[in-house]
Amino acid sequence: MPAEPDDLNSLPVLRVGIAGYGNTGQIRRRYIDEHPNLQTIAVCDITLEPCVAPDGVRRWKTYRQLLDEDLDILFVCITNDMAPEVTMAGLERGLHVFCEKPPGRTVADVAAVRDVEASQPELKLKYGFNHRYHDSIRDARRVIASGELGKVIDMKGVYGKSKMIRFDADWRTKRDIAGGGILLDQGIHMLDMMRFFGGEFVDIHAFITNGYWKHDVEDNAYAIMRTDTGIVAMLHSSATQWRHRFNLDITLSEGALVLSGILSSTKSYGAETLTVVHRGEYDDGDPREVTTRYSSDESWRREVQEFAGCVIRDEPVHYGSSLDALKTMQLVYDLYTADPEWAEAWDIRPPAMSVG
Q1: What's the rounded Cα separation, in Å, for the pair 258 and 291?
Q2: Residue 85 within a domain
Q3: Model confidence pLDDT, tens digit, residues 309-330
Q4: Least confident of 61-65, 124-128, 173-177, 244-248
C-alpha cells in the first residue's frame, strides 16, 4: 500500500493538470490538493473561459492549451470519446497520467493507449476503477485472501440506477461520444469487482437491451459468465432500477460475503455494508452473520495517494494498470458480442486482439 503523506513531506511538489473539470474532476482536485506532493496548477473544460481563477489555478477551454503548461502529471476526467486521445497526448508530452474509467469507447482505444505507454516506460499510467478502494471491498478481499471461508463458488451482482443521464450530462446517451450505455458507464465497476474476486471469465452469455429508454445505448445488460476454474457469476447492470442499488453476493465453500450499498457522491445507493456469513455446522440455512457498516468513503483519497506514491517512488501501478483496464474493457465487449442481435444491430464486432 502507498506510504502515508507524512512520509513524503521532504519530497518535491509535482505540478498537476486536470483535463475535464466537471463533478469528477473537481472531486479529484480536492484530494490532489490535500496531498503534500501534488498541486493543481491548471484545469481545462469546454465550459470554461481562459483565465486565472481567484485561487491562482489557470483555466483553459481545451486540453491542448492545458498541455502547454509546465506539468508533471495529468488527470483525465473527460468524455469517453476524448479520454484515449488526451491520455496519449499526455504520455507523449512526458507526463504521468491518471485516467478515469471507462478508458475509452472500445477495446481498440485501450490498445492504442497501451502502444503509446510502451514507448514511454518511465511514465506511470493508472485508470480510476475507484470501487476497489472502498472499505467494504478491501475487507471482502482480505477475507477471501485469508481462506477462512474457503474458495469462491459463485457471485451474483446487481448495479443499477433509474436512468442513463443527469440533466447536465446527456452525452452518456450518445453512442458516438459514450461508446456504450449503462454497462460501459456503471456496470464496468461490477465487472471489475467480479474479476477482482473471481479471476478471468472465459464462457460468457448475455442479453443486452435498450427497450425502455430507447437511447442508442443499452439500458439493461443481463449476463452469466464462468471462469476456467468453474466460478460462475451473474450480473444485472440496469438503468431501470428505480431504487438505486449496488449488491454483490459472493458464495464461498465455508460461508458467504454480501456487499450491499456503496458510498457515492449522490448518497443514493444506501448504507455501505459488508456481511460475513459463516456456514453453519448443520447447514440449517440460518448461519451466523456479522455485518459491518461503513460511515465514510476514503476511496478517492486512497486512489490519489497510491498513484502519487507510484510516481514518486517509481513503483509499478498496483490496481488500475492499463492491462487491468484492457481486460475489463474486453469483458464489456465480450458481453456486447455475446448477444448476437445487439451486436448486429449496432455493428459491434469482437475485438481482434488478445489481452493475455
Answers
A1: 9
A2: yes
A3: 999 999 999 899 999 999 999 9
A4: 173-177
**Domain with 31 in it: what CATH number?**
3.40.50.720
pTM of the model: 0.93
Identify whether residues 229 and 293 lie together within a single domain: yes
Both 110 and 162 in one domain: the answer is no
Decide: 220 and 182 in contact? Cβ < 8 Å. yes
Residue with cell 454483490: 248
CB 73 within 8 Å of CB 96: yes
- Are residue 181 and residue 85 in the same domain, yes or no? no
| Strand residue runs (E) in 88-143 | 96-100, 125-128
Region at 89 (left for phi over 0; alpha for psi -120 to 50; beta for the rest)? alpha
CA distance 333 to 331: 5
- For residue 148, what are the CA distances in angstroms to 153, 175, 250, 256, 328? 14, 45, 14, 11, 28
Query: What whole-number distance in Å separates Cα of residue 261 and Cα of residue 272?
Result: 4
According to the model, what pLDDT value does residue 11 have? 75
Q: Left (φ > 0), alpha (ψ -120 to 50) or beta: where does 284 sit?
A: alpha
Q: Rounded to whole angstroms, how far apart are CA atoms 329 and 104?
A: 9
The rounded distance, in Å, linking the Cα atoms of 148 and 254 is: 8
Handedness of CA 326, 332, 337, 338 (dihedral sign): positive
Does 41 share its domain with 58? yes
- 242: Cα separation from own chain's centroid: 23
Tens-place pLDDT, residues 103-159: 999 999 999 999 999 999 999 999 999 999 999 999 999 999 999 999 999 999 999
**DSSP secondary structure letter of residue 61:** S
CATH code of the domain covering residue 155 = 3.30.360.10
135 assigned to some structural domain? yes
Number of folded domains that form the chain: 2
Structural domain of 61: 5-130+301-317
